[in-house]
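We close this part of the discussion by returning to an individual protein. The encoding preserves chain order, so positions in sequence and tokens coincide. The sequence in question and its structure tokens are set out directly beneath this paragraph:

===
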Amino acid sequence: TFVGNGDFVELDVDGHTNLDNISVSGVSTFTGDAAFVGNVSIGGTLTYEDVINVDSVGIITARAGIDCNADLDVDGHTNLDNVSVAGVTTFSDDVTFQTANTNNLVLDKSDNSLKFGDSVRAKFGASTDMEIYHTTAGNTNFIKGTGNLFLQSNVIVLEDQSGNDYIRIDN
């Protein structure tokens, strides 16, 4: 059935229709299921719900949370605003904790060390009763604390930079 005033306005088809090539400009509404065999290309925004598999070449934007119940493999830089980890976290290389003064704290895998940048402090105790840090001003090293400082060993040796004994206390 064709309806219109001489221009093609509406086509109403009952039953099966086989169209070799169709191009639609404007809004299309499908009532019921739509089946596509092969690839489907979308040149704009696709909004959908209850999808099992998504294969996207570009950026995926989710309006709500993403629930990943299997491995998530991300290649390249990933910027996450808030991460909550429940379980084991494995880092395959160095880990850098950026500090306010940008001198940073680095867990160096290759050196098996925890490196504190200048003026980055290691603080101990509930009230930060003790702290250890280094500054670039005069290459000064600090161990500051309230109360007593105990060093327990059979021999206590303080050396200069060349390894010469500066102070030696034998038991």
